[in-house]
């Protein structure tokens, strides 16, 4: 690990004072320290935000929930309001990492965790995300865990979070504090960026911008919620494919559908065409297949991850059966 | 830097990069916590910080100067074992023993989480989970045992959790 200077932030305003590209916030540290040990991340300064008063979960007037950026993943998963109103989020969190890690991992840090691409972690190999312009070792290399949607010829990494997939299905808003004191409210749908030619830039956050909260709108009435994660072992493994679903059926027809996907793209994936293929229809396997077609229309495998395309199809169809069945 | 470990105060001159795990092992001589992977993947380094189980390899010592750190050395002594330590001995919950301090610290934290009603990935009902064997395994999945002593680890934890072994169902206590 390269050495760094350490500063404990005394307030959110103090935390955003430093906009240097070599400064990082540290919250739970479970991703940042991992990467620093391997010198994938080499910050010159760490700003410790872990003790800022941003660890509360509050009800909002409109029936939604406001989650502090420092709420640990385990506390969020166990919160009675989350269990009752946002079961998909609780389920996604519980499907991620381990008990110990969830006790440390924070809401903000989870959203910003980096890819698990093997080459990103291996500083002896080229990687455009780690160092722009060096090349992508995964294209033509081992890419079993990597993306089939939203890739570019520069990077095919996946975003590894489970929590963020559920939050995308729940239309979360990310609230931030900028260096200049302005607050921003960013829809999770606009928060992440496709890799394009700059896979090193993953979100729209500006230097020094701090996530303070995540807000969830009230969940749709009468919807069934589910998180399904397919992985290489039964626990403590990242998703190969995951589906977060929030679907309501009324009078025998699909009244609303929100479906987000993990393991497939460079960001928690959501595609309006999938939902358009479902809403207003009587639930049927033909309709579910049409939704899968819409999802996977542009999907491209890179060899060892080709299997994700049929796996995503089957996982989606199985989830839709569960979400709309008796 | 100043720390509270197992109820005692310690002072250490440590590099800013020092993890809690390295602080314990290299600076204050508490070598019970083990280093397996140093990347959050094995659980051998599990300790309790303010009562919560965490991977001590993935957190900086400097961030925990105002916290209560509890290690395996703080749970019991050879003459006065913690119930989980005694149960691991009674059930042969280890072979080489390398993962054991982490397993036991993790189990202490895990039983507390279950007592608070925290659900797990395998809980069918997130509001009412019991501590079935499947629940114990899932909740302990962050602790890898290379000797695969898992069945006996589950036996030991089940005993301390106050549950009857599967197959010897007592008053509907098991699923
Ligand atoms: C072995 C292992 C298995 C795992 N398995 C899974 C899994 O199955 N599913 C899953 O989803 N995750 C998994 N994880 C990842 C884990 O969820 C993340 O490491 C964790 O959520 C990161 O949160 P943190 O608070 O520790 O972030 P940190 O490591 O503290 O920070 C991560 C990044 O976010 C930035 N940051 C943190 N907070 C803020 C903020 N408030 N505002 C702006 N920037 C901020 C930091 O500067 C840093 O760049 C696993 C991790 C490990 C080590
Ligand atoms: S897929 Fe992205 S993260 Fe992986 S090697 Fe290629 S550029 Fe790097
Ligand atoms: S040494 Fe900390 S998890 Fe392996
Ligand atoms: S007893 Fe040997 S690793 Fe668990």
From TrEMBL, chain A:
Q: Residues in domain FAD-binding PCMH-type?
A: 1-221
Q: Which GO terms describe its molecular function?
A: FAD binding; oxidoreductase activity
Which keywords are on file for this protein? FAD, Flavoprotein
**Pfam families xref list:** CO_deh_flav_C (PF03450), FAD_binding_5 (PF00941)
Q: What domain of life does the native source organism fall in?
A: Bacteria
Q: Which PANTHER family match?
A: ALDEHYDE OXIDOREDUCTASE FAD-BINDING SUBUNIT PAOB (PTHR42659:SF5), XANTHINE DEHYDROGENASE SUBUNIT C-RELATED (PTHR42659)
From the Swiss-Prot or TrEMBL record, give the protein name.
Answer: Xanthine dehydrogenase family protein subunit M
Its lineage reads: Bacteria, Pseudomonadati, Pseudomonadota, Alphaproteobacteria, Sphingomonadales
UniProtKB/TrEMBL annotation, chain B:
PANTHER family hit by this protein: ALDEHYDE OXIDOREDUCTASE IRON-SULFUR-BINDING SUBUNIT PAOA, OXIDOREDUCTASE, IRON-SULPHUR BINDING SUBUNIT-RELATED-RELATED
Query: Which PROSITE patterns does the record cross-reference, listed alphabetically?
Result: 2FE2S_FER_1, 2FE2S_FER_2
- SUPFAM superfamilies, per the entry: 2Fe-2S ferredoxin-like (SSF54292), CO dehydrogenase ISP C-domain like (SSF47741)
Q: Does the keyword Cytoplasm apply?
A: no
Matches recorded under Gene3D superfamilies:
3.10.20.30, [2Fe-2S]-binding domain
One short Pfam name that applies is Fer2
Q: Which species expresses this protein natively?
A: Sphingomonas oligophenolica
Descriptive protein name: (2Fe-2S)-binding protein
